[in-house]
């Protein structure tokens, strides 16, 4: 059977399918819109780095290869483009799993302070390039045990810290704190003094592919998926994420986690 490309036929097919299966037509239409929107975004996101890489390769084949220095420069840029493609595909893979609810959380007890220290170490080089310091904003750094999927929470903290570096000013600071909330919760805050986010963008920030600066010429690479991955992971834990931000002052992202019971209990 040929693949349907005609929109009218597609709608008819959906209606028939809905009738057969006795499902709500609206839900199906929304899903279909969502799928089209998603695919449109994906191809758009992949196009830019693909054309960039192709551009460098063609220039090299066109004679630029004769100069060793230029060749190296172009190969490095092409390689950066490929890195970006890999990064986008990894994010897509994650978001797809998250959106079909295929995310198996493996909850265990772990020390959140230790985990944050690990992420600081992993991002040290990236932060140093912009002379940004990653610090704890808390008096004691004694272990604080929480319940959650430590790998996924590490991804959350990594994404938030990477953003604070990407959108932070040179010589800026990103501070992380972990505080006890009422009852059995802690709140983790990640605060930067970077470029901040204009108010009108805040409600849409966690949507996939949403970026404040949509221009293709923007300096900072990214897929626009980071924050939607963060939100999915936090919500899968049954927790909440918050954002406060002011242009040229900075941003604060915070989320809650369940405190782990004492081991002796
Ligand atoms: P990406 O960084 O790949 O564009 P994200 O989903 O991680 O995608 O973030 C969405 C958008 O939110 C970013 O493009 C950026 O405009 C804005 N943003 C996220 N974190 C910060 C931050 N700490 N400071 C300023 N802007 C931010």
From TrEMBL:
Enzyme class: transferase
Signal peptide: none
GO cellular component: plasma membrane
EC number: 2.7.13.3
Keywords: Kinase, Membrane, Phosphoprotein, Transferase, Transmembrane, Transmembrane helix, Two-component regulatory system
Domain Histidine kinase residues, every copy: 41-261
Gene Ontology process terms (BP): cellular response to phosphate starvation
GO molecular-function terms, A-Z: phosphoprotein phosphatase activity; phosphorelay sensor kinase activity
Domain of life: Bacteria
Catalysed reaction equations from the record: ATP + protein L-histidine = ADP + protein N-phospho-L-histidine
Protein name, entry field: histidine kinase
Residue window of the full protein shown: 87 to 351 of 351
């Amino acid at each position: 059977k040929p693949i349907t490309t005609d929109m009218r036929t597609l709608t008819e097919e959906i209606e028939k399918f809905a009738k057969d299966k006795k499902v709500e037509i609206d839900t199906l239409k929304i899903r279909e819109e969502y799928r089209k929107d998603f695919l449109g975004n994906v191809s758009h996101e992949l196009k830019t780095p693909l054309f960039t890489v192709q551009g460098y390769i063609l220039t090299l084949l066109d004679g630029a290869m004769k100069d060793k220095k230029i060749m190296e420069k172009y190969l490095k840029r092409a390689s950066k483009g490929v890195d970006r493609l890999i990064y986008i595909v990894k994010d897509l893979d994650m978001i797809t799993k998250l959106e079909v609810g295929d995310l198996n959380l493996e909850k265990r007890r772990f020390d959140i302070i230790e985990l944050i220290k690990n992420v600081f170490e992993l991002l040290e080089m990236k932060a140093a390039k912009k002379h940004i310091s990653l610090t704890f904003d808390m008096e004691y750094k004694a272990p604080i045990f929480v319940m959650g999927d430590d790998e996924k929470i590490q991804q959350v903290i990594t994404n938030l810290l990477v953003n604070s570096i990407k959108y932070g000013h040179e010589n800026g600071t990103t501070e992380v704190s972990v505080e006890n909330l009422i009852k059995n919760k802690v709140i983790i805050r990640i605060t930067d003094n970077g470029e901040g986010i204009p108010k009108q963008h805040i409600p849409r920030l966690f949507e996939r592919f949403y970026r404040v600066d949509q221009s293709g010429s923007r300096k900072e690479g990214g897929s626009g998926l980071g924050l939607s991955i963060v939100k999915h992971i936090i919500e899968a834990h049954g927790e909440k994420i918050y954002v406060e931000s002011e242009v040229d002052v900075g941003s604060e992202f915070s989320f809650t986690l369940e405190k782990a019971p004492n081991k002796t209990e």
